[in-house]
């Protein structure tokens, strides 16, 4: 039986940034004034945001880290 990736498992409430994760993450970083990291989700194969950039949690290696917006 082939394994099907499940979007329902472990990904509730997490937006999949898709293939344009860099642009999406940058836009969200600017909007929220935070730095974000993007990691590949082992559950759905998509890309999710995390604010944990210091390996405090056992996420996958980050694919991308946004520039930190200057707080004004
Ligand atoms: Zn996921």
Contiguous runs where pLDDT drops below 50 for at least 5 residues: none
**Share of residues in strands:** 15-25%
Tell me the strand order in the biggest sheet. Answer: 2-1-3
Helix coverage percent: 10-25%
Termini separation comes to 54 Å
Which small compounds were modeled alongside the protein?
zinc ion
Explain how this protein is built.
It is built from one helix and three strands. It has a three-stranded antiparallel beta sheet, with helices on one face. Helix content is 17%, strand content 17%. Zinc ion binds next to loops.
Properties at a glance:
3 strands, binds zinc ion, 72 residues, alpha+beta, three-stranded antiparallel β-sheet
Structure, briefly:
The protein has 72 residues and is α+β, with helices and mostly antiparallel strands. The protein is 17% helix and 17% strand.
Topology:
Elements (H helix, E strand, L loop, with lengths): L20 H12 L4 E4 L6 E4 L11 E4 L7
Antiparallel strand pairs: 1-2, 1-3
The site of zinc ion has 7 residues, from loops.
């Amino acid at each position: 039986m082939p394994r099907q990736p499940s979007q329902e498992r472990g990904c509730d409430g997490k937006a999949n940034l898709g293939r344009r994760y860099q642009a999406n993450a940058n836009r969200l970083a600017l909007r929220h004034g935070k730095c974000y990291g993007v990691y590949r989700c082992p559950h759905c194969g998509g890309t999710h945001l995390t604010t944990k950039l210091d390996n405090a949690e056992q996420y996958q290696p980050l694919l991308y880290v946004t520039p930190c917006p200057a707080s004004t």
